[in-house]
Amino acid sequence: MRRPGVLAAVCVVAALPVTACTATAAPTASPAARSPKTDAPRPTPPAAKPQEEVLGDLVFAGHGFGPYKVLKPAAPERDCKAFVVYLTRKVLTMQQRHQAEERLRQRGWRPGKAVPGGAILTSGEWTAGLIPEPVSDEDREQVAPHKGVFALTALGNCRHLRRSAPATVTPPTAPSFPG
């Protein structure tokens, strides 16, 4: 069975939390249905993180796993998407992925819904996906001796894209790692 390449894995991960780019209204209870507990002040949401801080969080999450590349998407998505790809000597274990999740929690990220083999976390309007994968057969020679790839992606508030142009998923340029 042929597995998608490293770049394809990054693009798939980037497409997973695409709903994070859409605005949704939270349902509100009618005044009669509110309980005293819901009338309590709600905590303020975390301040919006700039993309550079999100990239720093993603790099911090994968620290020590191997060489990495920060992939910059093309305009107009560049300020609401972040991609970091690590090459690892082995495919990361679940324990190592949990370690990366814990590092993001230390930076204020909250666990989101579980996905098979990966994790989703949120921070403000950013949604991050962490997916460890084996290197595909087609990329194996290019990235040897590495056997795993750890894709960390984040999507933020892309509302400004809907005003100016239809939102499209533009894949980042293919990573080239030092051989």
From TrEMBL:
Keywords: Signal
Location of region: Disordered: 25-52
Compositionally skewed regions (Low complexity) per UniProt: 25-35
Residues making up the signal peptide according to the UniProt record: 1-25
UniProt-recorded name of the protein: Lipoprotein
Protein species of origin: Streptomyces celluloflavus
